[in-house]
Amino acid sequence: MSKESSMKLPTLFVLVGMFIISLYFLIEVDYYASAVNVNISSNDTPWIKIPKIGVDQDINNRSIDYGIYFEPKSSLPGKGTTILFGHRTLHGSPFLKLDQLQPGDEIDVIWPGIGTAHYSVSNHTIVDASYQMPLDQGNNLVLVTCYPLGSDTQRLVIEAKYVKVTSIQQTQSVPNTQSSYAFLFIAGLLGAGLLLTGIYPVKEDKLLIFIATIALTLLLVYAYFFPVPTTGIESVLSKLNELLSF
After folding, report:
1. Please, what sign has the CA dihedral across residues 221, 225, 229, 230?
2. Is the peptide bond before 148 cis (omega within 30 degrees of 0)?
3. pLDDT by residue (tens digit) across 6-43?
4. Among candidates 191, 211, 190, 210, which has minimal Cα distance to 200?
5. Which CATH number fits domain 41-172: 3.30.360.10, 2.30.110.10, 2.60.120.200, 2.40.260.10?
6. pTM of the model
7. Residue 244 above 70 pLDDT?
């Protein structure tokens, strides 16, 4: 009896691990699924381009969980301090490489009714998560993301100086094609789970692994068609990541 119990203990750890991984996937699926509803014609949607790190994405006014978020208390481009927030991990990771920006790197913010506001990176700083970002820093652009990677204890702040505003060029309109990425996460979880089921050494627990795989896959499919709030989930995962890093 004790032998059987000891054999099932590894299975418990595997199932917990599968569940945690599925939560990470759930956040990504939710992001890409929500992008289907958020993204409209780029002729009507603000856009940001950062060539140095490959950012070419719309700006939303709903939440940071839907991509790059415009702080509504800040100013529009060219009319004061514009503040944009973005996740460094999860939710599409739009600001994953933000730490690679150097003084002089170019940033363009395309804003309907205003034009294309051109900025040049001036400096970057690290502040505590509780730091209140000043809303009056001149006619500049401020980009904010979490720091360090995988944690939300601090913030990386990139400041860019305003250069000029030019008219919007229609060739800058790029449709969002990322919604299909959600299915890659779903297929990845299903494929990995089925592979694990096939090679799992504890034969009597193979069925448990298979059932967990199907259940977690269905959860992701449900989340794609019926997006669920994931802010609480991300907070738990961030704290878990900090705990395991010690």
Report:
1. positive
2. yes
3. 447 788 899 999 999 999 898 888 877 766 443 334 45
4. 210
5. 2.40.260.10
6. 0.67
7. no
